[in-house]
Design goal:
The chain is α/β, with parallel strands linked by helices. It has seven helices and 28 strands. The longest helix has 19 residues. The structure holds adenosine monophosphate and magnesium ion. The site of adenosine monophosphate has 19 residues, from loops.
């Protein structure tokens, strides 16, 4: 039997061979899912100044007990700080977000007062500090808001904006080329002849690449012809990574490996002990990382998530290369008596993981119904009701 490389060793070789791209500044509107190139600390506290949490009256709490009558001496709206000051027995009309006048130590809600001319009567008891949002109570100056390599999430964008940053420095964007191969494979939308099938995973891989934050610079289909493949590879290796699907096995029509070697590629990984996805290839040509994924759609999907995704994320500066994990209860037993790490496709329903569809590498429908992968290592035996982590991607 031909030898296989362990999954861990394959991943190690892939990650060792790809390198961090140069950083770039992006406007916040385009920063979602990029990875911060630096640690970012708050340059402004939040709130930036003591301000009112309500529309109402700024008061001195000790002089504003229930039934107190206060003189309204001014008005402070949100905006320019008018530098007002009050003494006991006085109040300033104030609005949400407006700076607190000097001397005031509480805000009474408008609903808890009655106004008569220049006076208000307070109808509730008032505690010091009430309805005042203190400077720095949410975020202190110098506090870390983003780690190096951390993914910029929706809410990260808001906290960066609150600091006055119009853009953020992030890792470089990976440019990816995708080439699908196979004489039988036809692009969706085109006419199909007997014996042909539609290309189901090159669009999936394009979407996955984009989901990782990379851009697709080239996506093309290539028949199983050496000359055509050489041309496609030459075009593809101008990108940072080239993903070729199909044709990586050992059949007479599987030309990818020999063709890659003939254009001077170095092959670092070939055949990995995972199921699905054994015919996985990784190499390098002219500084481009080469991934040969199996033609079977489920294998292509699984090997993309296990090997291509972490490589892209590393190049883009991510500090976490793993897929999101979720603890689930297993609905049934799982045992792996084979010689390859098994990735079982399944569905998480109400916290329970149920295997779904035919667990075969061509079985795309089961994959389409699944939302999680259970990794079962060689020799591992997992019992029903056990709580284990599964990988998710949706
Ligand atoms: P190969 O790796 O070229 O031997 O292909 C393995 C299996 O995957 C064959 O059944 C192919 O028809 C199928 N296949 C290859 N490429 C694609 C594709 N882009 N979309 C769907 N199935 C494919
Ligand atoms: Mg083929």
């Amino acid at each position: 039997m031909m030898s296989m490389i362990s999954e861990e060793e394959a991943r190690r070789r892939v990650l060792q061979s790809v390198h961090l791209l140069g950083e770039r500044a992006v406007p916040l509107s385009r920063a979602l899912d990029c990875f911060s190139a630096h640690e970012v600390v708050a340059r402004l506290p939040l709130p930036m100044f003591d301000n009112s949490a309500m529309d109402g009256y700024a008061v001195v709490a000790s002089s504003a007990g229930k039934g107190a009558r206060l003189q309204v001496v001014g008005e402070q709206a949100a905006g320019i700080d008018r530098g007002l000051r009050i003494s006991p027995g006085e109040a300033v009309r104030i609005f949400t977000g407006a700076p607190i006048p000097k001397g005031a130590d509480a805000v009474v809600m408008q609903e808890d007062t009655t106004r008569k001319g220049d006076e208000i009567v307070v109808t509730v008891g008032v505690d010091p500090g009430e309805f005042i949002r203190r400077r720095g109570c949410d975020l202190a100056e110098g506090q870390k808001i983003l780690a190096r390599g951390e993914r910029i999430r929706l809410t990260t964008i808001a906290i960066l904006a609150s600091q006055g940053f119009a853009d953020v420095t992030v890792g470089g964007q990976v440019k990816a080329a995708i080439v699908s191969t196979g004489d039988e494979v036809v692009m969706p939308g085109k006419k199909l002849n007997q014996g042909q099938i539609y290309d189901s995973h090159s669009i999936l891989l394009q979407t996955l690449v984009q989901r990782c934050g990379a851009s697709v610079t080239l996506a093309e289909h290539c028949p199983d012809q050496r000359e055509r493949l050489i041309e496609a590879i030459r075009r593809g290796i101008k990108s940072h990574i080239l993903v070729i699907t199909g044709g990586v096995s050992v059949g007479e029509h599987d030309l990818v490996q020999a063709t890659l070697r003939s254009v001077g590629a170095r092959i670092d990984v070939w055949r990995v002990a995972i199921k699905p996805g054994k015919p996985f290839l990784f190499g390098e040509a002219g500084g481009c990382a080469l991934f040969g994924l199996p033609g079977n759609p489920v294998s292509a999907f699984v090997t993309f998530l296990q090997f291509v995704r972490p490589a892209i994320l590393k190049m883009m500066g991510a500090n976490n290369l793993n897929l999101p994990k979720m603890p689930v209860r297993l609905a049934v037993d799982f045992a792996n008596e084979g010689d390859r790490t098994h990735y079982v496709r399944g569905r998480i329903d109400n916290g329970t993981f149920v295997p779904i569809g035919r667990q075969e590498s061509h079985a795309l429908f089961g994959l389409s119904q699944s939302n999680a992968l259970l990794r079962v290592a060689v020799g591992e035996s997992l019992k029903a009701d056990a709580i284990v982590d599964v990988q998710t991607w949706d």
